[in-house]
Amino acid sequence: MVAHQDKPLSAVDIEIIRASLEGIVLEMQNSLFRTGYSTIIRESQDASCCIMNARGQVIAQHVVLPLHIGSFPACCDAVIREYSGDIVEGDAFLINHPYEGGSPHAPDMCIITPAFHAGEIIAFCASIAHKSDIGGPVPGSCSGQAREIYNEGLHLPAVRYQRGYQRNTDIERIIAANSRTPELVLGDMRGQLGSARLGEKRLLELLEKFGKTRAQNAFDKLLELATTRMRAAISEWNDGVFEAERFVDDDGVELNKPVRIHVRVEKYGDKLRFDFSGSADQTRGPANIRPPVVRGACAYCLIALTDPHTFINSGLFDAFEIVAREGSMMNPHHPAPLNTYNPTVHALVECLFAALTNVVPKMARADGCGSRSIIIGGRSTYTGKGYVQYEILGGGAGARTTKDGASGTSVNQSNAKIAPVEILESEFPTRVQRFELIPDSGGAGQFRGGLGIRREYINLEDARFSIRSTKHVIAPRGVSGGSEGATGNILINPGREDEKRLPTRYADYPLKSKDSFRLLTPGGGGLGNAFSRDPNRVLQDVIEGYVTPEHALNQYGVRIIRHGENWQIDEAATRTARVARQQ
User: Fold this and answer.
1) What Å distances lie between residue 424 and 78, 390, 520, CA to CA?
2) Does residue 341 have a pLDDT over 90?
3) Residue ranges of the domains in the chain?
4) What is the pTM of this model?
5) Residue 519 and which of 118, 232, 313, 446 are 20 to 30 A apart at CA?
6) Closest of 413, 411, 301 to residue 367, by C-alpha
7) Cβ atoms 532, 446 nearer than 8 A
8) Beta pairing partners, 61
9) How far from 55 is each of 24, 227, 497, CA to CA, in Å?
10) How far is CA 1 from the centre of its chain?
11) For residue 158, what are the contacts with CB-CB under 8 A and spacing of at least 6?
12) 500-511 residue pLDDT tens
Protein backbone atom coordinates (compact mmCIF):
# COMPACT_ATOMS: atom_id res chain seq x y z
CA MET A 1 0.00 0.00 0.00
CA VAL A 2 2.88 2.38 0.77
CA ALA A 3 4.17 1.97 -2.78
CA HIS A 4 0.77 3.05 -4.04
CA GLN A 5 0.86 6.20 -1.94
CA ASP A 6 4.24 7.33 -3.24
CA LYS A 7 3.45 6.85 -6.92
CA PRO A 8 2.24 10.07 -8.56
CA LEU A 9 -1.09 10.11 -10.36
CA SER A 10 -0.94 10.04 -14.13
CA ALA A 11 -3.66 11.14 -16.53
CA VAL A 12 -4.32 7.47 -17.19
CA ASP A 13 -4.75 6.79 -13.46
CA ILE A 14 -7.25 9.64 -13.15
CA GLU A 15 -9.26 8.39 -16.12
CA ILE A 16 -9.29 4.84 -14.74
CA ILE A 17 -10.49 6.10 -11.35
CA ARG A 18 -13.14 8.30 -13.00
CA ALA A 19 -14.45 5.42 -15.10
CA SER A 20 -14.33 3.09 -12.09
CA LEU A 21 -16.37 5.51 -9.97
CA GLU A 22 -18.95 5.84 -12.73
CA GLY A 23 -19.07 2.05 -13.04
CA ILE A 24 -19.60 1.67 -9.31
CA VAL A 25 -22.52 4.11 -9.38
CA LEU A 26 -24.02 2.31 -12.37
CA GLU A 27 -23.78 -1.00 -10.49
CA MET A 28 -25.44 0.63 -7.48
CA GLN A 29 -28.29 1.84 -9.69
CA ASN A 30 -28.78 -1.53 -11.34
CA SER A 31 -28.94 -3.13 -7.91
CA LEU A 32 -31.56 -0.61 -6.79
CA PHE A 33 -33.71 -1.02 -9.89
CA ARG A 34 -33.59 -4.81 -9.69
CA THR A 35 -34.47 -4.96 -6.00
CA GLY A 36 -37.16 -2.27 -6.11
CA TYR A 37 -40.55 -3.26 -4.76
CA SER A 38 -42.59 -0.50 -6.43
CA THR A 39 -43.24 0.04 -10.13
CA ILE A 40 -41.89 3.55 -9.58
CA ILE A 41 -38.40 2.16 -8.93
CA ARG A 42 -38.52 -1.18 -10.73
CA GLU A 43 -40.15 0.00 -13.98
CA SER A 44 -40.01 3.80 -14.19
CA GLN A 45 -36.57 4.03 -12.54
CA ASP A 46 -37.41 7.22 -10.65
CA ALA A 47 -34.19 7.10 -8.63
CA SER A 48 -30.48 7.79 -8.90
CA CYS A 49 -27.28 6.98 -7.03
CA CYS A 50 -24.01 8.77 -6.41
CA ILE A 51 -20.70 8.73 -4.56
CA MET A 52 -19.65 11.81 -2.59
CA ASN A 53 -16.32 12.64 -1.01
CA ALA A 54 -15.90 13.07 2.74
CA ARG A 55 -17.00 16.71 2.40
CA GLY A 56 -20.30 15.75 0.78
CA GLN A 57 -19.39 16.81 -2.77
CA VAL A 58 -20.58 14.56 -5.59
CA ILE A 59 -17.59 12.91 -7.27
CA ALA A 60 -19.58 10.47 -9.43
CA GLN A 61 -23.18 10.30 -10.59
CA HIS A 62 -24.19 8.09 -13.49
CA VAL A 63 -27.02 10.31 -14.63
CA VAL A 64 -30.57 9.03 -14.45
CA LEU A 65 -32.18 12.07 -12.86
CA PRO A 66 -29.84 15.03 -13.47
CA LEU A 67 -31.37 17.34 -10.84
CA HIS A 68 -30.12 15.08 -8.07
CA ILE A 69 -26.61 16.40 -8.58
CA GLY A 70 -27.83 19.47 -6.67
CA SER A 71 -29.89 17.49 -4.16
CA PHE A 72 -27.26 14.99 -2.97
CA PRO A 73 -24.79 17.54 -1.49
CA ALA A 74 -27.59 19.40 0.32
CA CYS A 75 -28.83 16.15 1.86
CA CYS A 76 -25.31 15.11 2.86
CA ASP A 77 -24.62 18.56 4.33
CA ALA A 78 -27.62 18.06 6.61
CA VAL A 79 -26.24 14.70 7.79
CA ILE A 80 -22.76 16.13 8.43
CA ARG A 81 -24.22 19.16 10.17
CA GLU A 82 -26.38 17.04 12.50
CA TYR A 83 -24.03 14.12 13.19
CA SER A 84 -20.49 15.48 12.77
CA GLY A 85 -18.20 13.61 15.20
CA ASP A 86 -20.73 10.81 15.66
CA ILE A 87 -20.61 8.99 12.33
CA VAL A 88 -19.21 5.48 12.54
CA GLU A 89 -18.84 2.48 10.27
CA GLY A 90 -22.15 0.66 9.82
CA ASP A 91 -24.20 3.86 10.04
CA ALA A 92 -26.84 4.88 7.53
CA PHE A 93 -28.85 8.08 7.42
CA LEU A 94 -32.22 9.00 6.00
CA ILE A 95 -33.58 12.41 4.98
CA ASN A 96 -36.42 13.60 2.77
CA HIS A 97 -36.97 17.16 4.04
CA PRO A 98 -36.68 19.70 1.18
CA TYR A 99 -35.83 22.57 3.54
CA GLU A 100 -33.57 20.73 6.00
CA GLY A 101 -31.82 18.94 3.13
CA GLY A 102 -32.16 18.99 -0.64
CA SER A 103 -34.85 16.51 -1.70
CA PRO A 104 -36.90 18.01 -4.54
CA HIS A 105 -40.04 16.99 -2.63
CA ALA A 106 -40.79 14.76 0.35
CA PRO A 107 -41.51 11.52 -1.59
CA ASP A 108 -37.86 11.60 -2.73
CA MET A 109 -36.10 9.84 0.15
CA CYS A 110 -32.33 10.05 0.34
CA ILE A 111 -30.36 7.30 2.08
CA ILE A 112 -26.68 7.97 2.77
CA THR A 113 -24.01 5.63 4.14
CA PRO A 114 -20.44 6.57 5.10
CA ALA A 115 -17.59 4.55 3.58
CA PHE A 116 -14.66 4.05 5.97
CA HIS A 117 -11.04 3.11 5.35
CA ALA A 118 -8.68 2.54 8.29
CA GLY A 119 -11.16 4.20 10.64
CA GLU A 120 -11.55 7.34 8.52
CA ILE A 121 -14.49 8.47 6.40
CA ILE A 122 -13.30 8.52 2.82
CA ALA A 123 -16.65 8.93 1.02
CA PHE A 124 -20.43 8.68 1.21
CA CYS A 125 -22.59 6.40 -0.95
CA ALA A 126 -26.13 7.61 -1.52
CA SER A 127 -29.33 7.24 -3.46
CA ILE A 128 -32.51 9.27 -3.87
CA ALA A 129 -35.64 7.32 -4.77
CA HIS A 130 -39.28 8.32 -5.09
CA LYS A 131 -41.68 6.62 -2.66
CA SER A 132 -45.15 5.52 -3.65
CA ASP A 133 -46.81 7.09 -0.60
CA ILE A 134 -45.59 8.82 2.57
CA GLY A 135 -48.95 9.96 3.88
CA GLY A 136 -50.75 13.26 3.51
CA PRO A 137 -54.32 13.91 2.36
CA VAL A 138 -54.14 12.10 -1.01
CA PRO A 139 -52.73 8.77 -2.23
CA GLY A 140 -49.22 9.28 -3.58
CA SER A 141 -48.59 12.30 -1.33
CA CYS A 142 -48.61 14.75 -4.26
CA SER A 143 -51.58 17.03 -3.79
CA GLY A 144 -51.86 19.68 -6.48
CA GLN A 145 -53.80 21.81 -4.01
CA ALA A 146 -51.32 21.67 -1.11
CA ARG A 147 -50.97 25.02 0.69
CA GLU A 148 -47.91 24.08 2.79
CA ILE A 149 -45.50 21.18 3.09
CA TYR A 150 -47.52 19.79 5.97
CA ASN A 151 -50.08 18.79 3.31
CA GLU A 152 -47.41 16.72 1.55
CA GLY A 153 -46.84 13.78 3.85
CA LEU A 154 -44.22 12.75 6.40
CA HIS A 155 -41.06 14.88 6.49
CA LEU A 156 -37.89 13.57 8.10
CA PRO A 157 -34.83 15.70 8.83
CA ALA A 158 -31.50 13.87 8.84
CA VAL A 159 -32.01 10.82 11.09
CA ARG A 160 -29.87 7.77 11.74
CA TYR A 161 -31.43 4.80 9.99
CA GLN A 162 -28.78 2.21 10.86
CA ARG A 163 -26.13 1.78 13.53
CA GLY A 164 -23.80 -1.18 13.40
CA TYR A 165 -25.54 -2.26 10.18
CA GLN A 166 -28.78 -2.77 12.15
CA ARG A 167 -31.87 -0.92 10.97
CA ASN A 168 -33.71 1.39 13.34
CA THR A 169 -37.04 -0.41 13.32
CA ASP A 170 -38.68 2.46 15.24
CA ILE A 171 -38.12 4.73 12.25
CA GLU A 172 -39.46 2.04 9.94
CA ARG A 173 -42.57 1.68 12.08
CA ILE A 174 -43.17 5.45 11.97
CA ILE A 175 -42.80 5.54 8.19
CA ALA A 176 -45.00 2.47 7.74
CA ALA A 177 -47.70 3.97 9.95
CA ASN A 178 -47.79 7.05 7.71
CA SER A 179 -47.95 5.25 4.37
CA ARG A 180 -50.81 3.72 2.41
CA THR A 181 -48.29 1.27 0.89
CA PRO A 182 -45.92 0.43 3.77
CA GLU A 183 -44.51 -2.77 2.27
CA LEU A 184 -43.50 -1.03 -0.92
CA VAL A 185 -41.96 1.96 0.85
CA LEU A 186 -39.92 -0.12 3.29
CA GLY A 187 -38.94 -2.56 0.56
CA ASP A 188 -37.62 0.26 -1.61
CA MET A 189 -35.77 1.80 1.34
CA ARG A 190 -34.02 -1.50 2.05
CA GLY A 191 -33.12 -1.72 -1.62
CA GLN A 192 -31.51 1.70 -1.30
CA LEU A 193 -29.51 0.47 1.69
CA GLY A 194 -28.34 -2.55 -0.25
CA SER A 195 -27.19 -0.45 -3.19
CA ALA A 196 -25.24 1.86 -0.86
CA ARG A 197 -23.49 -1.06 0.85
CA LEU A 198 -22.58 -2.43 -2.57
CA GLY A 199 -21.10 0.97 -3.42
CA GLU A 200 -19.00 0.91 -0.24
CA LYS A 201 -17.63 -2.52 -1.08
CA ARG A 202 -16.65 -1.56 -4.62
CA LEU A 203 -15.16 1.73 -3.43
CA LEU A 204 -12.90 -0.05 -0.93
CA GLU A 205 -11.77 -2.38 -3.70
CA LEU A 206 -10.80 0.69 -5.73
CA LEU A 207 -8.83 2.08 -2.79
CA GLU A 208 -6.99 -1.20 -2.36
CA LYS A 209 -5.86 -0.89 -5.96
CA PHE A 210 -4.75 2.74 -5.92
CA GLY A 211 -4.24 3.55 -2.24
CA LYS A 212 -6.29 5.89 -0.10
CA THR A 213 -4.21 9.02 -0.55
CA ARG A 214 -3.88 8.68 -4.30
CA ALA A 215 -7.58 7.93 -4.68
CA GLN A 216 -8.57 10.94 -2.60
CA ASN A 217 -6.19 13.11 -4.62
CA ALA A 218 -7.89 11.81 -7.74
CA PHE A 219 -11.29 12.69 -6.29
CA ASP A 220 -10.12 16.30 -5.83
CA LYS A 221 -8.56 16.37 -9.27
CA LEU A 222 -11.82 15.22 -10.88
CA LEU A 223 -13.66 18.11 -9.23
CA GLU A 224 -11.01 20.53 -10.46
CA LEU A 225 -11.10 19.14 -13.99
CA ALA A 226 -14.89 19.41 -14.16
CA THR A 227 -14.65 23.11 -13.28
CA THR A 228 -11.78 23.75 -15.68
CA ARG A 229 -13.43 21.99 -18.60
CA MET A 230 -16.75 23.73 -18.13
CA ARG A 231 -15.13 27.16 -17.82
CA ALA A 232 -13.11 26.49 -20.96
CA ALA A 233 -16.31 25.66 -22.84
CA ILE A 234 -18.07 28.75 -21.47
CA SER A 235 -15.16 30.98 -22.52
CA GLU A 236 -15.83 30.08 -26.18
CA TRP A 237 -19.44 31.28 -26.06
CA ASN A 238 -20.76 34.73 -26.94
CA ASP A 239 -20.43 37.40 -24.27
CA GLY A 240 -23.37 39.50 -23.20
CA VAL A 241 -26.48 39.79 -21.06
CA PHE A 242 -29.53 37.84 -22.19
CA GLU A 243 -32.98 37.34 -20.69
CA ALA A 244 -35.79 34.85 -21.21
CA GLU A 245 -39.01 33.79 -19.54
CA ARG A 246 -41.41 30.88 -19.48
CA PHE A 247 -44.71 30.30 -17.68
CA VAL A 248 -46.25 27.42 -15.77
CA ASP A 249 -50.01 26.99 -16.40
CA ASP A 250 -50.88 27.66 -12.75
CA ASP A 251 -49.81 26.67 -9.24
CA GLY A 252 -52.75 24.31 -8.60
CA VAL A 253 -54.44 26.70 -6.16
CA GLU A 254 -54.79 29.97 -8.08
CA LEU A 255 -56.13 28.59 -11.34
CA ASN A 256 -56.05 30.65 -14.55
CA LYS A 257 -53.03 32.53 -13.22
CA PRO A 258 -49.82 31.62 -15.08
CA VAL A 259 -46.65 31.62 -12.98
CA ARG A 260 -43.65 33.46 -14.41
CA ILE A 261 -40.12 32.10 -14.48
CA HIS A 262 -37.49 34.61 -15.58
CA VAL A 263 -33.73 34.35 -15.96
CA ARG A 264 -31.09 36.97 -16.67
CA VAL A 265 -27.90 35.36 -17.97
CA GLU A 266 -24.67 37.34 -17.70
CA LYS A 267 -21.72 35.84 -19.57
CA TYR A 268 -18.25 37.39 -19.76
CA GLY A 269 -15.14 35.38 -20.50
CA ASP A 270 -15.38 32.16 -18.51
CA LYS A 271 -17.79 33.67 -15.96
CA LEU A 272 -21.48 32.76 -16.07
CA ARG A 273 -24.21 34.07 -13.79
CA PHE A 274 -27.88 33.06 -13.67
CA ASP A 275 -30.13 35.59 -11.94
CA PHE A 276 -33.71 34.46 -11.25
CA SER A 277 -34.75 37.56 -9.30
CA GLY A 278 -37.42 38.40 -11.89
CA SER A 279 -39.31 35.18 -11.27
CA ALA A 280 -42.66 35.18 -9.48
CA ASP A 281 -42.99 35.36 -5.73
CA GLN A 282 -43.44 32.02 -3.99
CA THR A 283 -46.75 30.48 -4.92
CA ARG A 284 -49.64 29.48 -2.69
CA GLY A 285 -49.83 26.12 -4.43
CA PRO A 286 -47.04 23.53 -4.78
CA ALA A 287 -45.21 25.02 -7.78
CA ASN A 288 -42.18 26.17 -5.80
CA ILE A 289 -38.66 24.75 -6.01
CA ARG A 290 -35.63 25.02 -3.74
CA PRO A 291 -32.12 26.34 -4.63
CA PRO A 292 -30.49 22.86 -4.73
CA VAL A 293 -32.93 21.94 -7.50
CA VAL A 294 -32.32 25.25 -9.30
CA ARG A 295 -28.57 24.61 -9.14
CA GLY A 296 -29.03 21.09 -10.48
CA ALA A 297 -31.14 22.40 -13.39
CA CYS A 298 -28.44 24.93 -14.33
CA ALA A 299 -25.78 22.21 -14.26
CA TYR A 300 -27.95 19.97 -16.43
CA CYS A 301 -28.37 22.68 -19.07
CA LEU A 302 -24.63 23.37 -19.22
CA ILE A 303 -23.88 19.65 -19.63
CA ALA A 304 -26.46 19.44 -22.43
CA LEU A 305 -24.90 22.42 -24.22
CA THR A 306 -21.31 21.24 -23.94
CA ASP A 307 -20.08 17.66 -23.68
CA PRO A 308 -22.46 14.87 -22.61
CA HIS A 309 -19.38 12.89 -21.60
CA THR A 310 -18.04 15.57 -19.29
CA PHE A 311 -17.23 14.74 -15.68
CA ILE A 312 -20.52 14.75 -13.76
CA ASN A 313 -19.62 16.00 -10.30
CA SER A 314 -19.92 18.97 -7.94
CA GLY A 315 -17.01 20.71 -9.65
CA LEU A 316 -19.54 21.93 -12.22
CA PHE A 317 -21.03 24.23 -9.58
CA ASP A 318 -17.82 26.27 -9.41
CA ALA A 319 -18.21 27.17 -13.09
CA PHE A 320 -21.31 29.33 -12.58
CA GLU A 321 -23.19 31.44 -10.05
CA ILE A 322 -26.91 31.55 -9.31
CA VAL A 323 -29.05 34.22 -7.67
CA ALA A 324 -32.38 32.99 -6.34
CA ARG A 325 -34.30 35.72 -4.53
CA GLU A 326 -35.58 34.73 -1.08
CA GLY A 327 -39.34 34.57 -1.01
CA SER A 328 -39.54 33.79 -4.71
CA MET A 329 -40.73 30.52 -6.23
CA MET A 330 -37.04 29.67 -6.75
CA ASN A 331 -36.22 30.09 -3.08
CA PRO A 332 -39.44 29.99 -1.04
CA HIS A 333 -39.74 30.46 2.69
CA HIS A 334 -40.66 27.45 4.80
CA PRO A 335 -43.30 25.98 4.80
CA ALA A 336 -44.25 26.84 1.19
CA PRO A 337 -45.48 23.73 -0.67
CA LEU A 338 -43.22 22.00 -3.20
CA ASN A 339 -44.57 18.61 -4.14
CA THR A 340 -45.52 19.25 -7.80
CA TYR A 341 -42.14 20.83 -8.49
CA ASN A 342 -41.31 19.05 -11.75
CA PRO A 343 -43.47 21.12 -14.15
CA THR A 344 -41.78 24.20 -12.71
CA VAL A 345 -38.33 22.76 -13.32
CA HIS A 346 -39.24 21.98 -16.93
CA ALA A 347 -40.25 25.61 -17.47
CA LEU A 348 -37.01 26.67 -15.75
CA VAL A 349 -34.90 24.46 -18.02
CA GLU A 350 -36.65 25.75 -21.15
CA CYS A 351 -36.20 29.30 -19.91
CA LEU A 352 -32.46 28.63 -19.48
CA PHE A 353 -32.16 27.09 -22.94
CA ALA A 354 -34.02 30.05 -24.48
CA ALA A 355 -31.60 32.53 -22.90
CA LEU A 356 -28.52 30.43 -23.63
CA THR A 357 -29.49 30.08 -27.30
CA ASN A 358 -28.16 33.63 -27.63
CA VAL A 359 -24.89 32.48 -26.11
CA VAL A 360 -24.63 29.20 -28.04
CA PRO A 361 -26.79 29.70 -31.18
CA LYS A 362 -25.85 26.37 -32.75
CA MET A 363 -27.47 24.55 -29.81
CA ALA A 364 -30.96 26.06 -30.12
CA ARG A 365 -33.94 23.88 -29.29
CA ALA A 366 -37.69 24.27 -29.02
CA ASP A 367 -39.73 23.58 -25.89
CA GLY A 368 -40.76 20.04 -25.06
CA CYS A 369 -43.78 18.46 -23.44
CA GLY A 370 -42.74 19.03 -19.83
CA SER A 371 -43.61 16.28 -17.36
CA ARG A 372 -46.66 14.71 -15.78
CA SER A 373 -47.60 11.93 -13.48
CA ILE A 374 -50.93 10.34 -12.73
CA ILE A 375 -51.60 8.84 -9.33
CA ILE A 376 -54.48 6.47 -8.59
CA GLY A 377 -54.93 5.14 -5.09
CA GLY A 378 -57.40 2.93 -3.31
CA ARG A 379 -57.86 -0.38 -1.55
CA SER A 380 -57.96 -3.48 -3.69
CA THR A 381 -60.93 -5.78 -3.14
CA TYR A 382 -58.72 -8.66 -4.30
CA THR A 383 -55.79 -8.19 -1.89
CA GLY A 384 -57.46 -6.12 0.82
CA LYS A 385 -54.42 -3.83 0.79
CA GLY A 386 -53.92 -0.23 -0.21
CA TYR A 387 -52.32 0.45 -3.57
CA VAL A 388 -50.91 3.48 -5.37
CA GLN A 389 -50.62 3.38 -9.15
CA TYR A 390 -48.03 6.04 -9.92
CA GLU A 391 -47.10 6.65 -13.55
CA ILE A 392 -44.69 9.08 -15.18
CA LEU A 393 -45.63 9.92 -18.76
CA GLY A 394 -43.77 11.81 -21.45
CA GLY A 395 -44.74 13.32 -24.79
CA GLY A 396 -42.95 15.17 -27.57
CA ALA A 397 -39.47 16.64 -27.33
CA GLY A 398 -38.73 19.98 -28.95
CA ALA A 399 -36.98 20.13 -32.32
CA ARG A 400 -33.24 20.85 -32.39
CA THR A 401 -31.03 22.75 -34.81
CA THR A 402 -30.34 19.65 -36.90
CA LYS A 403 -32.95 17.07 -35.85
CA ASP A 404 -36.65 16.50 -35.27
CA GLY A 405 -37.79 16.11 -31.70
CA ALA A 406 -38.23 12.60 -30.34
CA SER A 407 -41.81 11.34 -29.88
CA GLY A 408 -43.45 9.70 -26.87
CA THR A 409 -40.50 10.24 -24.56
CA SER A 410 -39.47 11.88 -21.32
CA VAL A 411 -37.73 15.18 -21.96
CA ASN A 412 -34.98 17.25 -20.40
CA GLN A 413 -34.30 16.39 -16.77
CA SER A 414 -37.16 13.92 -16.26
CA ASN A 415 -35.52 10.89 -17.87
CA ALA A 416 -37.84 8.32 -16.28
CA LYS A 417 -39.40 5.43 -18.18
CA ILE A 418 -43.07 4.93 -19.04
CA ALA A 419 -44.32 1.84 -17.19
CA PRO A 420 -45.27 -1.08 -19.48
CA VAL A 421 -48.99 -1.72 -19.95
CA GLU A 422 -48.57 -5.39 -19.01
CA ILE A 423 -47.08 -4.48 -15.63
CA LEU A 424 -49.82 -1.98 -14.83
CA GLU A 425 -52.64 -4.34 -15.70
CA SER A 426 -51.11 -7.18 -13.70
CA GLU A 427 -50.52 -5.12 -10.55
CA PHE A 428 -53.38 -2.62 -10.45
CA PRO A 429 -57.17 -2.66 -11.09
CA THR A 430 -56.93 -0.86 -14.41
CA ARG A 431 -57.08 -1.56 -18.13
CA VAL A 432 -55.21 0.51 -20.72
CA GLN A 433 -57.42 0.77 -23.80
CA ARG A 434 -55.26 3.00 -25.99
CA PHE A 435 -51.59 3.95 -26.01
CA GLU A 436 -50.51 5.72 -29.16
CA LEU A 437 -48.83 8.76 -30.66
CA ILE A 438 -51.05 11.73 -31.56
CA PRO A 439 -50.71 12.73 -35.24
CA ASP A 440 -50.05 16.43 -35.93
CA SER A 441 -49.22 17.15 -32.26
CA GLY A 442 -45.59 18.05 -33.00
CA GLY A 443 -44.99 21.69 -33.85
CA ALA A 444 -44.33 22.31 -37.54
CA GLY A 445 -40.93 23.56 -38.62
CA GLN A 446 -37.93 22.87 -40.78
CA PHE A 447 -37.36 20.40 -37.98
CA ARG A 448 -40.57 19.00 -36.52
CA GLY A 449 -41.41 18.71 -32.85
CA GLY A 450 -41.90 15.26 -31.39
CA LEU A 451 -45.40 13.84 -30.98
CA GLY A 452 -47.36 13.62 -27.77
CA ILE A 453 -49.15 10.46 -26.66
CA ARG A 454 -52.74 9.44 -26.04
CA ARG A 455 -53.34 7.03 -23.19
CA GLU A 456 -56.85 5.89 -22.21
CA TYR A 457 -57.82 3.80 -19.20
CA ILE A 458 -60.79 2.08 -17.65
CA ASN A 459 -60.72 1.97 -13.88
CA LEU A 460 -61.96 -1.33 -12.43
CA GLU A 461 -62.50 -0.28 -8.80
CA ASP A 462 -63.45 2.87 -6.91
CA ALA A 463 -60.33 4.95 -6.44
CA ARG A 464 -58.93 8.44 -5.93
CA PHE A 465 -57.25 10.17 -8.87
CA SER A 466 -54.61 12.93 -8.91
CA ILE A 467 -52.56 14.48 -11.68
CA ARG A 468 -49.62 16.85 -11.73
CA SER A 469 -48.95 18.03 -15.24
CA THR A 470 -48.12 21.07 -17.35
CA LYS A 471 -48.68 22.68 -20.75
CA HIS A 472 -52.41 22.02 -20.88
CA VAL A 473 -52.93 25.78 -21.24
CA ILE A 474 -49.61 27.24 -22.38
CA ALA A 475 -48.29 25.39 -25.43
CA PRO A 476 -44.67 24.34 -25.90
CA ARG A 477 -43.00 27.13 -27.86
CA GLY A 478 -41.34 26.76 -31.21
CA VAL A 479 -38.16 28.67 -32.05
CA SER A 480 -36.72 30.43 -35.10
CA GLY A 481 -40.12 30.50 -36.79
CA GLY A 482 -41.23 27.02 -35.75
CA SER A 483 -44.79 26.42 -34.58
CA GLU A 484 -46.00 25.56 -31.10
CA GLY A 485 -46.55 21.96 -30.10
CA ALA A 486 -50.06 20.81 -29.20
CA THR A 487 -51.22 21.28 -25.61
CA GLY A 488 -52.13 18.42 -23.29
CA ASN A 489 -55.45 17.52 -21.72
CA ILE A 490 -57.01 15.24 -19.12
CA LEU A 491 -60.64 14.11 -19.47
CA ILE A 492 -62.67 11.96 -17.13
CA ASN A 493 -65.29 9.81 -18.89
CA PRO A 494 -64.73 11.33 -22.34
CA GLY A 495 -67.77 11.20 -24.59
CA ARG A 496 -70.23 10.55 -21.75
CA GLU A 497 -72.78 12.95 -20.32
CA ASP A 498 -70.69 13.27 -17.16
CA GLU A 499 -67.47 14.12 -19.05
CA LYS A 500 -65.21 16.38 -17.01
CA ARG A 501 -61.99 18.18 -17.87
CA LEU A 502 -59.57 18.49 -14.96
CA PRO A 503 -57.07 21.32 -14.40
CA THR A 504 -53.36 20.80 -15.05
CA ARG A 505 -52.76 19.98 -11.37
CA TYR A 506 -55.58 18.29 -9.53
CA ALA A 507 -55.85 16.15 -6.45
CA ASP A 508 -58.30 13.54 -5.21
CA TYR A 509 -60.90 13.21 -7.93
CA PRO A 510 -63.24 10.31 -6.98
CA LEU A 511 -63.08 7.71 -9.74
CA LYS A 512 -65.84 5.11 -9.76
CA SER A 513 -65.57 1.55 -10.97
CA LYS A 514 -65.87 1.48 -14.79
CA ASP A 515 -65.03 5.19 -15.06
CA SER A 516 -62.62 5.96 -17.87
CA PHE A 517 -60.12 8.73 -18.39
CA ARG A 518 -58.03 10.00 -21.29
CA LEU A 519 -54.65 11.68 -21.00
CA LEU A 520 -53.26 13.63 -23.96
CA THR A 521 -49.69 14.79 -23.54
CA PRO A 522 -48.20 17.80 -25.36
CA GLY A 523 -46.10 17.65 -28.49
CA GLY A 524 -42.78 19.43 -28.85
CA GLY A 525 -42.32 22.79 -30.53
CA GLY A 526 -40.91 23.07 -34.05
CA LEU A 527 -37.73 24.82 -35.17
CA GLY A 528 -37.37 26.91 -38.32
CA ASN A 529 -39.72 27.78 -41.16
CA ALA A 530 -41.99 24.81 -41.88
CA PHE A 531 -42.04 25.68 -45.60
CA SER A 532 -38.29 25.04 -45.64
CA ARG A 533 -38.74 21.43 -44.60
CA ASP A 534 -37.69 18.90 -47.21
CA PRO A 535 -40.93 17.68 -48.89
CA ASN A 536 -39.57 14.13 -48.82
CA ARG A 537 -39.36 14.31 -45.04
CA VAL A 538 -42.96 15.51 -44.93
CA LEU A 539 -43.91 12.58 -47.14
CA GLN A 540 -42.15 10.19 -44.77
CA ASP A 541 -44.01 11.76 -41.83
CA VAL A 542 -47.32 11.08 -43.59
CA ILE A 543 -46.33 7.50 -44.40
CA GLU A 544 -45.41 6.88 -40.75
CA GLY A 545 -48.61 8.48 -39.48
CA TYR A 546 -46.87 11.37 -37.70
CA VAL A 547 -48.54 13.98 -39.92
CA THR A 548 -51.90 13.84 -41.70
CA PRO A 549 -52.14 14.86 -45.40
CA GLU A 550 -54.26 17.87 -44.41
CA HIS A 551 -51.64 19.03 -41.89
CA ALA A 552 -48.88 18.47 -44.46
CA LEU A 553 -50.61 20.89 -46.84
CA ASN A 554 -51.70 23.49 -44.30
CA GLN A 555 -48.54 23.62 -42.21
CA TYR A 556 -45.79 22.60 -44.64
CA GLY A 557 -47.23 23.50 -48.04
CA VAL A 558 -46.71 19.94 -49.24
CA ARG A 559 -49.58 18.20 -51.01
CA ILE A 560 -49.52 14.44 -50.39
CA ILE A 561 -51.84 12.25 -52.44
CA ARG A 562 -52.68 8.57 -52.69
CA HIS A 563 -51.41 6.68 -55.71
CA GLY A 564 -52.71 3.13 -55.47
CA GLU A 565 -51.54 1.82 -52.11
CA ASN A 566 -48.78 4.41 -51.77
CA TRP A 567 -48.49 8.05 -50.80
CA GLN A 568 -46.63 10.45 -53.05
CA ILE A 569 -45.91 14.17 -53.41
CA ASP A 570 -47.98 16.24 -55.84
CA GLU A 571 -45.01 18.30 -57.06
CA ALA A 572 -46.99 20.95 -58.96
CA ALA A 573 -49.46 21.60 -56.14
CA THR A 574 -46.62 21.73 -53.62
CA ARG A 575 -44.72 24.36 -55.65
CA THR A 576 -47.90 26.43 -55.94
CA ALA A 577 -48.67 26.20 -52.22
CA ARG A 578 -45.15 27.16 -51.17
CA VAL A 579 -44.89 30.08 -53.61
CA ALA A 580 -48.28 31.38 -52.39
CA ARG A 581 -47.09 31.15 -48.78
CA GLN A 582 -43.91 33.12 -49.54
CA GLN A 583 -45.97 35.91 -51.10
Assistant:
1) 37, 10, 18
2) yes
3) 2-228, 364-529, 534-582
4) 0.95
5) 446
6) 411
7) yes
8) none
9) 19, 17, 60
10) 42
11) 75, 78, 79, 81, 82, 83, 93, 94, 95, 97, 100, 101
12) 999 999 999 999
